Amino acid sequence: MAPTDPGTTRDQPIPPVSSTPTALADPTSTGPTPAEAFDALYVGLATALFRQTYLLTGRRNLAKESVERAFEQAWQRWPEVAVDRDPAGWVRAAAYEYAMSPWHRLRRAHRHPDPQSEVDPRSRALLDALLDLPPVYRRTLLLHDGIGLDLPDAAAETEATTAAAAGRLMTARAAVAERMPELATPLSPDEESALFHEQLGTLALAQPVAPLLTPHAVRTAGENKARLWTQAAIALTALLVGLALVTMVTAPPRYETPPSPAEQVGGVPPRGGPQQLTPQDLDMQMKLNDELVHGPARLVPEVR
Prior knowledge:
Number of strands: 0
Number of helices: 11
Strand content: under 5%
Shape: elongated
Distance between the termini: 113 Å
Structural class: mainly alpha
Oligomer: single chain
Order of helices and strands: HHHHHHHHHHH
Helix content: 55-70%
């Protein structure tokens, strides 16, 4: 079921985000700086990644946000990404994960796909069929037939076994072919994969690309967010330390067991502590405290 090598035997309407620019071929070399290597990766892959995430979501703003967020994360973790065997695949996985997060359903701007009034009916029908698939089926179909990953790699990226990914791929193809008659022609697995690849690539290239940030702006945004999170972590740690010190100072030195509630035993009334004073008791207490005579208790005539 795996397609032939996408880099040797068939065209790539959807450029694969799986090849590493030459600037990253040797991260230990003295040639490109980290910023130059990141910029080369961004310039070469951002547009293709935008088209892919758009096919996953049907939302231009979300696709743009996903691509920029993925590259921001890549710059924040650049020492790890630069030595990865597939830096472009690392960024692609980060963009896909963000784009397909279910939390976006709570955002009003991303609840519904963008209108497709300017797209021809055939492309609109294909995109609608793609977006009606469950997210993991949609992602598997795009990875295998759209980008050209082999089945084990597509399964690894979707955190599934190869058998599960194959089942999802067959189900996704059948669901799309049911709504697209030209894709329902009986073909061999390789021919079917090539046909889906062509259709998905044509659909992706028909979509206008949103204006993306420059590489420098993405790096700056990533650095600012990393700095903000660091400051927030330091502030939270200082707050917790301060609360702990306040607790240590104000807490009682020892624990005193509260008295147990009084109970009646053998008909004898319970013996409890002092009861709450009534208003009459309070008046008497104030009157006694205001008396002019002090000393032993005795009767004093009231002055009228």
